[in-house]
Amino acid sequence: MLRKDFKRIRSNGIRFGLLVQAMDGLVGDVCYKHMNATTESLEHWIEIGRGNETFDSLPYFLPTVSVDRVDFVSNIRLDRDLRMSAYMMAAKGSTMVVKIDCEQRPAGGDYEKIGEAIFLFLARDKSKNQAYSVPSLKLSPSDDVLMGAQAYELGIMLKNFSMQKAQRDLHKQLPTFEESTQF
Question: Cys-Cys crosslink for 65: which of 29, 32, 120, 144, Cβ 3.0 to 4.6 Å?
Answer without folding.
Answer: 120
